[in-house]
Amino acid sequence: MTVFGITPLVSLEHLADRNGKLAGLLLAFAAPLVLPDDELTALAAQFPCFIPEGLDDPQAWLAAGWKALPAQQLQRINGAFDKNALTPNAAWLAGDWPLAPPVKAVGAQAASRALALQLVQLVSNDADTHEIEALLRRDPTLSYHLLKVVNSLSMGSGRKVGSFAQAILILGRQQLRRWLNLMLFSAREGDVRSPMLLARVAVRAHALEMLARETGMGKPQQEQAFMVGMFSLLGVLFGMPLPEVLAPLTVSDAVAQALLERQGELGALLVLVEAAERADFAALAAQLPALPLAPEDFHRVIGESHSWMLGVATDQGQAHG
After folding, report:
1. 147-158 tens-digit pLDDT
2. For the chain, domain boundaries
């Protein structure tokens, strides 16, 4: 999902292993292909990065740490994930299968995800800390991960955090909101889509935030841009129309307009990132000048967003590298 210029353009696609975990990045490009730059060389040093088989003059990419991906090892899936339907040689899975409707959640899985969404609602509505704390106590998994992330942040102070109220105070409302949004997409038992959805939504959120900054928007709009990226796949996650998922949340008109109509400044940024996900090079070439945004700046933003996503996925145990 990385852009180098109006022409040529290149894009990165997320690859999963046979268990559905994020495992690599695959290059897509609009001819003529350019040489790898520092951003893509750095990504290849962090994570398995592949060029498609038959690429003309691949030596520069191989020297930059990229690997050739044999066509017979790649299986593209655009429907629901079915491990029993995988071909024997398929080591890498591509396609839009993470966007397929979820298997109906039951029991503890459904209750846990419902509680997580309630927490997002409370934080979005700026509820009192004691209300947030009371709900956290009902989900051991969320509670554990919250205390884990806050204790890691406070290691330098030499103190351990032992209460939810203290954790919320240390993390702050903005970071708590971001953490809860990410936790919605983290692995849930029975939902094989979770690792790849987390990867996609993390790239979207960070890219939108940085693009808002690059195009001159202020801090409040940058935060809204991050929220747009995170909320844009909630309907996919829950298997519900997005307006229904958003209904209980307090979001600004700009955020709602971007999410539901792809309109406004934030909507234009979301459309741009979605075009990059699809490797729609014609749309990218048309939209970048309208922002206006230099192609090299968009390239840098998307490269950094993938690096940020890899850190998130690794922290959540969602990636194999």
Report:
1. 777 777 654 555
2. 10-99, 105-190
